[in-house]
UniProtKB/TrEMBL annotation:
Domain of life: Archaea
Listed name of the protein: Uncharacterized protein
Biological source species: Methanococcus maripaludis
Keyword annotations from UniProtKB, A to Z: Membrane, Transmembrane, Transmembrane helix
This protein's record includes keyword Transmembrane helix: yes
Transmembrane segments: 21-43, 79-100, 121-144, 150-173, 193-210
Length: 245
């Protein structure tokens, strides 16, 4: 697969609607996680890849310590720690894309860069965050059965993650279009953008509570010699039944 082919596909991606960009990014994010997890597990016996995830682990521990010092160590403190950690990651991703057009606008006006350079950097950062190598590295030591704990809360976590990427991209090409004239957003468009952004903390808050529960389920199943898959099914079936009926 050549770089020119990727550039062509990315150019078509930029022309998609928000919903379609989200669907593509959501799918690619899960695929990126699967690829990095598989590669990390394959090379971990040869090279200790887990050391590369120290920064992410340290960030969570700092947040967790700060939250637990105020709330104590309980279900909700772990929930909020996951939420804050993931939300900060999504905001960071969004801000990276927000900053790019300002940097390249200045450089292009000074003749130091071109729109082509800007497009290539957008593609590079998009590919990097979609592959999400740090998350894959952190899961290198987990067994395949333990990885089931990623799936339930992952549906919501990766929704928030994907929205932050897509909104970052949309803001970038709004401030500095890769082609054509710059459009002016109406007040309605700005409000819609803000409402979409608010979906990020909503999805991540749900994911934070589920992530805490998911690891409790995994540990409970392992300690009691139960099937992890069956335990997950029974717990979530009972939760949904109590909510719906």
């Amino acid at each position: 697969m050549s770089f020119e082919f990727l550039k062509k596909q990315f150019n078509e991606f930029l022309n998609l609607s928000f919903i379609n960009k989200f669907i593509v990014t959501y799918f690619l994010s899960w695929m990126g996680l699967s690829i990095t997890l598989l590669i990390s597990k394959l090379i971990n016996p040869i090279i200790n890849v887990e050391s590369a995830g120290v920064l992410t682990t340290a960030k969570y521990e700092v947040i967790s310590t700060a939250v637990s010092s105020q709330m104590g160590i309980n279900y909700f403190s772990i929930w909020y720690s996951y939420f804050i950690s993931n939300f900060l990651a999504c905001v960071t991703i969004f801000l990276v894309f927000v900053i790019l057009p300002y940097i390249y606008n200045r450089d292009i006006s000074k003749g130091k860069s071109t729109i082509k350079d800007y497009f290539d950097v957008l593609l590079f950062f998009y590919a990097l965050v979609v592959l999400n190598p740090l998350t894959g590295i952190l899961g290198a030591s987990l067994s395949f059965s333990d990885l089931l704990a990623i799936i339930p809360h992952g549906f919501f976590e990766y929704a928030g993650f994907s929205i932050s990427i897509v909104l970052g991209i949309e803001y970038s090409i709004y401030k500095l279009p890769v082609r054509g004239e710059k459009e002016v957003w109406t007040k309605k468009q700005k409000i819609k953008f803000l409402l979409k952004f608010l979906l990020i903390p909503i999805f991540l808050f749900i994911a934070g509570g589920m992530e805490t529960l998911d690891w409790i389920i995994v540990n409970y199943a392992k300690e009691n010699g139960l099937s992890i898959v069956k335990t997950f099914f029974e717990v979530y079936y009972n939760i949904l039944s109590s909510l719906l009926f």
